TrEMBL record:
InterPro entries: SoxG, TrmE/GcvT-like. This is Sarcosine oxidase subunit gamma. Gene3D superfamilies: Heterotetrameric sarcosine oxidase, Probable tRNA modification gtpase trme, domain 1. It holds the Pfam family SoxG.
Length: 208
């Protein structure tokens, strides 16, 4: 029988980006890095799918339990690191600064929506820096110009033929990107090559 100490060493949590992303400066070496890629392994994620005719009741329940409101189509409603991102008709992605912050979400919306934890099913990265928009425009299948996509905008799209959920956090601009964990390696291959010409830094988010 394997001892508890041995089991603990075997079952350590593993980043979705492990084996692909290395912390530090990469790509072009001269001058300031144009891109910062922040690996967001610490966040809690869950999908919500509303029951027929229950959207208004769901909105009230989320406001009462978490202080959240349902965003309109193509929008994100965030306060700091928490809130909801539109994912499709009657569907939203809930995000919280830690996984524990989503405890109780399913109970709060019982009978109103289904909740599926996605914390281990998605790989999340934050893209920021003065060249963030230019870099993402190489592969994102939507128009990222501020006239079309700005702070609070959200989309389900494809990036380099990989399905992704994208939302813009501020006008800097700063973006968050979520892909299926199984595509993390393929996505990182594209992302690191696209960022290389600008020089980019890789760092871990809080909690790592």
């Amino acid at each position: 029988m394997v001892g508890a100490e041995k089991l603990e060493s075997i079952w350590k949590p593993r980043s979705a980006w492990a084996g692909y992303a290395r912390a530090g400066r990469h790509g072009r070496t001269g001058g300031e890095a144009g891109i910062t890629l922040t690996l967001r392994d610490e966040v809690g994620l869950a999908t919500l799918i509303v029951a027929d005719g229950k959207e208004a009741a769901l909105d009230r329940a989320l406001e009462a339990s978490h202080g959240w409101s349902l965003p309109e189509a193509g929008r994100a409603a965030l306060a700091g690191e928490e809130g909801l991102i539109w994912s499709g008709p009657g569907q939203w992605l809930a995000i919280a600064g830690t996984r524990r912050r989503l405890d109780g979400l399913a109970d709060a919306v019982t009978g109103l929506a289904s909740v599926t934890d996605q914390s281990d099913g998605r790989a999340l990265v934050r893209v920021s820096g003065p060249c963030a928009r230019e870099m993402l425009s190489k592969g994102v299948a939507i128009d990222l110009h501020p006239r079309a996509f700005r702070a609070g905008s959200a989309a389900v799209t494809s990036i380099a033929h990989i399905g992704a959920q994208l939302w813009q956090r501020d006008d800097a601009p700063t973006y968050d990107l979520a892909v299926a964990r199984s595509f993390a390696g393929s996505f990182w291959s594209w992302l690191s090559h696209a960022a290389a010409e600008f020089g980019y830094g890789v760092e871990h988010g809080p909690g790592r």
